[in-house]
Amino acid sequence: MIDEMAIVKKYAAHLPVEVNALIRELGLTYFEAPMPSENSGRIHKDGSDFTITVNASEGPQRRRFTAAHELGHYLLHRDLLPDGAHLDRLFNAQGYEEANDGIRPHHEVQANQFAANLLMPATFLRTHYDPAADNYKELARNCAVSSRAMQVRLKALGLRG
C-alpha cells in the first residue's frame, strides 16, 4: 500500500506543484477533455479505479486548480463516491442538489481548501508575501495560479486585506 500523503508532501515541496504528475503517481488516470462550459471537472470511479477529467477548454491555471480540487475529492471523499462520476459545475449550487452521490456543498469547500493548500502553501506565502510591495502577482506566477486565486488565498490567510 502506498503512503499517499507522503507522495502529496513530496510534490508539495516544489513550486509550482506538478499536479498532473502527482495524480498519476497516486495511481489515478488524468485526462483533459472538452466539456460543456458550465462543467469544470469530474472524478469518475469504476470499481477501484479513479479517473480525473478536467475541462480542456478552460485556461491552464483553472485546469490546475480543478485537477487539485478533484484530487481533494479523491483523498478526502472517495468513500462517498459510488461507481460512476461526480461532476463539478462552475458557480452552480443547484448542481450539488442534483448530484446522486454523497458529495455535498461542505465537501466542495473542503476540496477547494485542499486545492488552495496544495497549490499555494501557507508557509511559502507567509515567507514570501511582502505587504508593502503587494507582490501577489509574482507569487501567483511562482505557484502557477491566477492572480485572483492568489488574492483570495492571501486574504484567507489574513495576509492581505
Automatic annotation (TrEMBL):
Domain IrrE N-terminal-like: 25-155
Matching InterPro entries: IrrE_HExxH, Rad_response_metalloprotease
Top-level taxon of origin: Bacteria
Protein known as: ImmA/IrrE family metallo-endopeptidase
